[in-house]
Amino acid sequence: MVIKVFVATSSGSIAIRKKQQEVVGFLEANKIDFKELDIAGDEDNRRWMRENVPGEKKPQNGIPLPPQIFNEEQYCGDFDSFFSAKEENIIYSFLGLAPPPGSKGTEKAEESGENEAQKEGGEDAGSLPGAQKKEEEGETATEETEEITKEEEEGEAEEEEAEGEEEPGEEGEES
C-alpha cells in the first residue's frame, strides 16, 4: 500500500505550500512510504484527485485544494483531517496503515479497537474525538483570555490610580 499525496508544486498560495510541506515532511520523518503526485503539471493527476475526493469533503466551489491524501484508491483526507489525526496520535489509522511495532499507536490500537471502528463507521464517528478536543482547547483558550483580560484590567486600574495621584499634585503646583 502506497500513500499518495496530491500537491501543487507551482502553487502561488503560501498557506497551501506550507500545508503540503508539513504533510510531506511528516511522512518523510516517520519513514512512511508515500508518493507525491503533482496536480499543477499533470492534468491526469488533477482529474483523478478531483474525481476521488468524496462529495461531502469537497468545498462549496467543488474543487478540493491540495494537499489531498489517499491510501492507494482509498481517500484518507485533506490537511485539516491529517493535522487532527496527527494531534490525536492516530495518524497510522488515518492513513489506513498498521503502526510500526513498539510505537504508541500500536499500544493505543491494541487498547481499544475504536480506530478501526471509527474508520469503518465513517467520518462522523472519527470526528467526535476531534470535536471534544476542540471544545477542550476552546475552554483553555477562554481561560487564558480571561487571565489576560484580568491582567489588562489590573494594569489599567494601576495606571488610573497613578494618574489620579498626579492630578492633585499638579493642581497644588498651579494654585
UniProtKB/TrEMBL annotation:
Keywords: SH3-binding. SUPFAM superfamilies: Thioredoxin-like. Pfam families: SH3BGR. Residues 95-175 are annotated as: Disordered. The keyword Membrane does not apply. GO terms for molecular function: SH3 domain binding. Residues 105-122 have a biased composition (Basic and acidic residues). Gene3D superfamilies: Glutaredoxin (3.40.30.10). Residues 137-175 have a biased composition (Acidic residues). It comes from the Eukaryota. PANTHER family: SH3 DOMAIN-BINDING GLUTAMIC ACID-RICH PROTEIN, SH3 DOMAIN-BINDING GLUTAMIC ACID-RICH-LIKE PROTEIN. Belongs to the SH3BGR family. This is SH3 domain-binding glutamic acid-rich protein isoform a. It comes from Daubentonia madagascariensis (Aye-aye).
